[in-house]
Specification:
Its EC number is 4.1.1.20. With 421 residues, the chain is an alpha/beta fold. 28% of the residues lie in helices and 24% in strands. The structure holds pyridoxal-5'-phosphate and lysine.
Length: 421
């Protein structure tokens, strides 16, 4: 028997982390998410290196994986952060990141969130509507402060990704139409409690093509020229995140090729380039470990019923996403042919599956690893069916540490009370 390295990737590279996953799963219990410190760092450095020729700030998209230990690893590298809520702001500051590297995206910022971010003195609000602009100006004024802003511009390019995670089209709720941006910038310039500092854009997630990026940047740079003519002073251009990763047979661009497409158009612009990558930094730095509870041979299908469910990893149920699932132990000389299974969880939904039609050699009690689970895994988990959320483990070399313990039922019930009315 050989133990698979915890992070053996599709490209055949074995990762340096060397923790025995069986021992870890025995001690922590399953399901649990396991993150590689080294891989997080390597991914962040790959962006940083690729953008070396120009002034830049990588603002990791916290929504992808907001564990405080993950954030603090990136903060120590000098990362900036893209947040979308007051909660994420608190996490990032708790992780020790400086507020002046934080940008705040999202279409529905509340007054309380605006106040929190103004008090913290974040780098920039990415404003997504005229109404938000008005509200932010008022809130900042009441606090006797000025809010630094970018307008998030919707360039109307088709990112050619899943419709739920495409954000740069006219019909999406995000951003301000590029055609309306010059007049809204002119308005922002008149508002006394705002300070224009940049332009922002994000066209979608899990992008596998460079063309939409190139297209969007071209449109943004045209807008920037127009704003220069309007004498609007910019300091940065925030080009969002969205670079895809390989889940199955996709061929996402390398980080360096993605950066080169941006650099080609950038030339010698006198601005700082901000990027907001999430998935490309966190996805392949994490796996979800789950144990087979039962094997069930139905009339039409075989099921491997595992102890992780859609509440732990919702991407398969929500987007029909495919993530690689494989046993942690692989026999050197397999004794039987693999069987075709649906890998399903205990949640009472037919949509509760982690994978369908997977050929596996498994037995009850076996440990499985779901790959590419470092991004939009735990961060999108829930307590559906009153299931406590999984533990999160960070591994570094031969060491591991529990960076979020498993939720107990007491944790879940603590917020509720028996009705007395
Ligand atoms: C505004 C914004 N920035 C950054 C991201 C991160 O995207 P990704 O994880 O695809 O890099 C997202 C998510 O799509 C987003 O909405
Ligand atoms: N949650 C999505 C990505 C959403 C990106 C956020 N704007 C996913 O798992 O693919």
């Amino acid at each position: 028997m050989t133990l698979n390295a915890p992070f053996s990737y599709q490209n055949g590279m074995l990762h340096a982390e060397a923790v025995n996953l069986e021992h870890l799963a025995d001690q922590v219990g399953t399901p649990c998410f396991v993150y590689s410190k080294q891989r997080l760092q390597d991914n962040w450095w790959a962006f940083d290196r690729a953008l070396q020729p120009i002034p830049h700030l990588i603002c990791y998209a916290v929504k992808a994986n907001s564990n405080i230990a993950v954030l603090s690893i990136l903060a120590q590298l000098g990362s900036g952060f893209d947040i979308v809520s007051g909660g994420e702001l608190t996490r990032v500051l708790t992780a020790g990141a400086p507020a002046n590297k934080i940008v705040f995206s999202g279409v529905g910022k509340s007054i309380a969130e605006m106040k929190q971010a103004l008090e913290a003195n974040i780098l920039c609000f990415n404003v997504e509507s005229e109404a938000e602009l008005t509200r932010l100006n008022q809130v900042a004024g009441e606090m006797g402060l000025k809010a630094r802003i970018s307008l998030r511009v919707n360039p109307d390019v088709d990112a050619r990704t899943h419709p739920y995670i495409s954000t740069g089209l006219k019909q999406n709720k995000f951003g301000i139409a590029i055609t309306e941006a010059p007049s809204l910038y002119a308005k922002a310039q008149q508002l006394p409690h705002l300070e224009i500092t940049g332009v922002d854009c994000h066209i979608g997630s899990q992008l596998l093509d460079l063309a939409p990026f190139a297209d969007a940047l071209q449109r943004i740079l045209q807008l920037v020229k127009q704003l220069e003519q309007q004498k609007i002073q910019l300091h940065h251009i925030d080009f969002g995140g969205g670079l895809g990763v390989r889940y199955r047979e996709e061929e996402p661009p390398e980080i360096v090729d993605y950066a080169n497409v941006l650099l080609e158009q950038w030339q010698n612009l006198p601005y700082t380039l901000l990027l907001e990558p999430g998935r490309a930094i966190a996805a392949d730095a994490g796996i979800l470990l789950t144990r087979v509870e039962f094997l069930k041979n139905g009339e039409a299908k075989n099921f491997a019923i595992v102890d992780a469910a859609m509440n732990d990893l919702i991407r398969p149920a929500l987007y029909g996403a495919w993530q690689r699932i494989e046993p942690v132990f692989v026999a050197d000389t397999p004794s039987a042919d693999p069987l075709c299974y649906d890998i399903v969880g205990p949640v009472c939904e037919t949509g509760d599956f982690l994978g369908k039609d997977r050929y596996l050699r498994v037995n009850e009690g076996d440990l499985l690893a779901v790959h590419q689970a470092g991004a939009y895994g735990f961060a999108m988990s829930s307590n559906y069916n009153t299931r406590g959320r999984a533990a999160e483990i960070l591994v570094s070399g031969h060491q591991w540490q529990c960076v979020r313990r498993r939720e107990t039922v007491e944790d879940l019930l603590a917020l509720e009370s028996i009705a007395t009315i």
